[in-house]
Design a protein that fits this description.
The structure is a single chain. By secondary structure, this protein is of the alpha+beta class. The chain is built from eight helices and nine strands. 36% of the residues lie in helices and 24% in strands. The strands form two sheets. A five-stranded antiparallel β-sheet has the order 3-2-1-4-5. A four-stranded mixed β-sheet has the order 6-8-7-9. A hairpin with a 3-residue loop joins strand 1 and strand 2. It starts with a strand and ends with a helix.
Length: 250
């Protein structure tokens, strides 16, 4: 068995005296483990750092085996990530989120989104906006997608300002006003989408209050539908990222 492609380094652990077991999120094959011979060498250690993008060849006698990686660096982000708190939090959050997905199943959308976030991780206002969209996509990939395009009560697409904490559906201002204290806030700017092509200046216009509300929204559904059923806790770095955002409050 053999395949090749791009992989985002999520983590690495020691194996024996000289080798390492590498965990990658790959574009076409999902989250995959493999053994890297000489992975603890002086040459390979800087390459096998979380956040780096690598080109890989994976080989094994049988598909269910751990297999071996042959690694070539593509984009080494780790040094710049280590210099920035926001970037460190982002790479750790992304690794924790991607580990929620089933192994060896393709999630190319999640792979692409993670790399876009890491390319902008040094700017908290931008990376947080992207992270909110990443978490919405993650919920969808796990079978807990939110319905944010129209009001669950009236069907209106106007003034969608809340989300039901039970159904995950949007609620318009007029329909939700009597129960506003029981609904989650849906920042209007968060709905505008974050695709592969976006304007950084537009991203920076989003207020810290809206970004925090977006994280509270996705955090609620991750906690209820993913973390609690799996007896897990949200990564600590998620709260630390919120703390970083507070530095930009006016």
């Amino acid at each position: 068995m053999e395949w090749n492609g791009q992989g985002l380094v999520l983590g690495v652990r020691r194996h024996g005296e000289t080798s390492a077991i590498l965990e990658l999120m790959t574009r076409d094959h999902g989250r995959y483990l493999g053994l890297v011979r000489g992975g603890r060498s002086r040459k390979m250690r800087p390459v096998l750092q979380p956040g780096n993008l690598v080109n890989v060849v994976w080989r094994a006698r049988l598909d269910e085996h751990l297999g071996y990686y042959q690694i070539e660096p593509e984009l080494l982000r780790a040094a710049s990530i280590m210099e920035n708190r926001s970037s460190l939090f982002c790479v750790q959050i992304l690794a924790a989120h991607l580990r929620l997905l089933p192994e060896r199943e393709s999630f190319s959308r999640m792979f692409n989104a993670a790399n876009i976030i890491l390319d902008h991780a040094h700017i908290p206002q931008i990376s947080t906006h992207l992270m909110i969209h990443f978490e919405i996509a993650l919920l969808e990939a796990l079978g807990f997608g939110l319905s944010l395009d129209k009001c669950v009560v009236s069907g209106s697409t106007e003034e969608l300002v809340w989300v039901s904490p039970k159904s995950g559906c949007a609620v318009s201002r007029s329909e939700g006003e009597p129960w506003a204290d029981k609904l989650l806030r849906l920042p209007e700017r968060i709905l505008r989408g974050a695709s592969d092509e976006f304007a950084e200046d537009q991203m920076q216009e989003i207020s810290v209050d809206d970004l925090k509300a977006g994280l509270a929204l996705t955090g609620h559904f991750l906690e209820r539908n993913v973390y609690i059923p799996r007896a897990l806790q949200a990564p600590d770095e998620r709260a630390r990222l919120i703390g970083e955002l507070s530095k930009f409050e006016s």
